[in-house]
Amino acid sequence: MLNIWTEKSGFNFGTIQERSIVNLALPISYYDPTVTFTLISGSIPPGLRIVNSSIQGTPYEVARATIFTFCIRATDNGEKADRTFKITVEGADAPEILNDEGTLPVGTNNSFFILDSSVVDFQIDAIDYDTATGQTLKYFISSGDGTLPPGLAMSRSGRITGLIKPLQSTSLTSGDGSFATDLYDSIGYDFGVRPDNGYDSFVYDTVTFDYNLPVVTPKKLNRNYEFIVSVSDGDTVTKKRFKIYVVGDDFLRADNTLMSVGTGVFTADGTFIRKPIWITPEDLGIHRANNYLTILLDTYEVPVIGQVVYSLDASNPDSTPSILPPGLQFDLSTSELFGVVPYQPAITKTYKFTITATRFGLDNETASTKRTFVIKTLGEVESVMNWVTPASLGSIDANYISTLKIQAISTIEDATILYTVLSGSLPPGLTLQLNGEIIGKVNQYSDNTTLGMTTFSDGVYTNQTFDGGTTSIDRSYSFVITAQDQYGYSGISRTFTLGINTPNDRLYSNIVARTFMNQDKRDIFNNFVNDSNIFTSSSIYRPNDINFGIQRDLKMTIYGGIETKTAAEYISAIGLNHKRKRFTFGDIKSAKAKIPGTNTVVYEVIYVEMFDPLEKGKLHLNSTVTRSKDPKKVLVDSSNAIWANNTETALMNVAEPYLPRPDYRITIDQNNLNVSDPNISKYYPSSISLWREQLKTVGLTERNYLPLWMRSVQDVTKQELGFVLAVPICFCNPGTSADILLNIKYSEFDFKNLDYTVDRYIIDSVTGESSDKYLVFKDDKVTIS
């Protein structure tokens, strides 16, 4: 063995700082150019490398103090020697908020005040070099750290937006502000201001009182909203205190006797007139030429702050001509764009024009806002649509969730196609969505609320569903679907047929569980699943289908496809081995759902693997666990003395109120608790495997009711997953789950902050009822969870 190392394994090079030049000599007894040093396991800090007999470079940023452990192999003429080393990299940076502390310049022209009923769009900026390591900055206002003006909100990215609600007006009963004249104060504080404009005109006054101008009582009270913004990179938090000064519209008037010019808050260009706020988007869309057109260009109407007039500019801000499409006119008073766009060839033309909205106040004071609009006109093109889906939709099994979809294509670029049923009807239980998805499941049998495939007439209450006058029961449905683009340029129809298979001669139910968390934990989870930066809408499979899309109820499949029986039979089955239980969250994984017998992926699912604390892998306890007997025996009266005596007669011989307290209890044995066993020795573990075994005793099982992704062969394992104890988070379009998994990773959301406690089942149907029912676990002392 090569004898070159001077330190034992585990040697620590010490602590180095990120972004600093490092040259660490390896602990060796000699250096020979023929000796090579190679990293064989672990990792040295990123940015460092082995050069000859030293570790050199500049370590990259670290999110927090990090210990890197690695093994280096020295090789010389075939002899080898390995050593394990450690290097600690420090230098985690706290976020730095760039905005100056104090009043924020949220007003017009970056003024340090904002009028009430005004729109705010302001960014709090921060920098943190640790974001290079994958950390993200999150902005928030902690509880007790103040509040934003009413109507404003701050996003997680630090952007303050919203419309400030109007300030409260002072009433006549509030007096002049020195003190309230009504019985109780209607204003939160006294707002009177002592006049300070008196002056001495001589060495000594020659008049009884100084000359002064009385202070005008304000109609609205200005407010300073103070709050502390916290910025976190996941490890450290930086705080900074800010203010937003909200001013009433009566403050910036010529008769204001309260304003001081030396504060630096108000400038000469300040005005009480608010700029108009455009609410019509800049892109007015595509419109067909040779057609009448009416478009309203609208602004937000703020009450009692002046009339708004509109004008068409001669040029756009980029110096291009501001031109309306030919045939259109602009009404300056109503801001309507109207007229007939004349015929144009088979091309699309783009027009850009700028409208100025001006609000007028008293004495010709004005405030204006410009907006540049873009509108496209579509010429006489041939809008051709074709069906992609064949007329025969094949067949679908009754009582199984549908994944069918109708699809057509259009020659119009970026056309959105809408689908509607023109005539006929889909099988009972199925519904056509506007995007062409056929959702739901076919009802094989009717119940009190829904029709089934087999329906007989009993007067006016139900319908007959026989095939065209024959005596056969419907097993094939025909219906006409129309596809039309969103512009209404063209539409096509097709008659589709769908066959129904009935592989089962009985009904089956699905049993799931879900957690009922407190409101705080529900808010945490809802913020997570509603984050469009994580769950991008284009990646979600069937977002409007309750069986797919984003799952917001944290449901967990317990048993898929158990024969439908009465509720009492299920209650009887869960009398053993069932008790309130808490599960733990595992890793986030993905799986593919494929059409049975093919390799065609229908959708992908992202789920959280769940674990039962009483199970380890596929191992679980027996249905009963017997405790060793207590060495102290309990004597039981087996002489039948209780039943031999006439208890009623014995009690009649004792005068009230001295009736003896009974020293026995007569009850009925349960299947898990016996009267004859006062010292419990037999216990019933509560675990997921035992839950499923007890449910299995209710009736027959149909495996095809398991979710499709559990019955699909996965690419990596080359075998079906089978039943998986898991909570689906979302269903994705094929090929998109990897991106969402990456988004979840970088969001740093931790499911362990949630609680998953189950105390009941939810079953989708029982005999005579097709709606969800709760099956609540009982709580006894002989079941352990």
Explain this structure to me?
This protein folds into five domains: 11-90, Immunoglobulin-like (Sandwich); 96-170 and 218-263, Sandwich (Immunoglobulin-like), CATH 2.60.40; 277-378, Immunoglobulins (Immunoglobulin-like, Sandwich), CATH 2.60.40; 385-501, Immunoglobulin-like, CATH 2.60.40.10; 508-623 and 685-784, Cyclic Phosphodiesterase, Chain: A (Alpha-Beta Complex), CATH 3.90.1140.10. It is mainly β and 785 residues long. Residues 456-472 and 632-669 have low confidence and may be disordered. β33 (476-485) and β34 form a beta hairpin. The chain is 6% helix and 34% strand. The protein contains six helices and 45 strands. Strands 9, 10, 13, 16 and 17 form a five-stranded mixed β-sheet that branches.
Primary descriptors:
6 helices, 5-stranded mixed β-sheet, Immunoglobulin-like, 4-stranded mixed β-sheet, 785 residues
In summary, what is this structure?
The protein is mainly beta.
Chart the SSEs and their pairings:
Elements: E1 11-17, E2 22-25, E3 36-42, E4 48-51, E5 54-57, E6 66-76, E7 79-90, E8 96-97, E9 102-103, E10 114-115, E11 119-123, E12 126-127, E13 138-140, E14 152-154, E15 159-163, E16 223-232, E17 237-247, E18 277-278, E19 283-288, E20 291-296, E21 299-300, E22 307-312, E23 328-330, E24 336-341, E25 348-360, E26 366-378, E27 385-387, E28 392-397, E29 408-410, E30 417-424, E31 430-432, E32 438-440, E33 476-485, E34 491-501, E35 508-514, H1 519-529, E36 555-563, H2 567-573, E37 581-594, E38 601-611, E39 625-626, H3 641-644, H4 647-652, E40 682-685, H5 688-696, E41 726-732, H6 737-747, E42 756-758, E43 760-763, E44 773-776, E45 783-784
Parallel strand pairs: 1-7, 9-17, 10-17, 19-26, 28-34, 40-45
Antiparallel strand pairs: 2-5, 3-6, 4-5, 6-7, 8-12, 11-15, 13-16, 14-15, 16-17, 18-21, 20-24, 22-25, 23-24, 25-26, 27-29, 30-33, 31-32, 33-34, 35-36, 35-43, 37-38, 37-42, 38-41, 39-40, 43-44
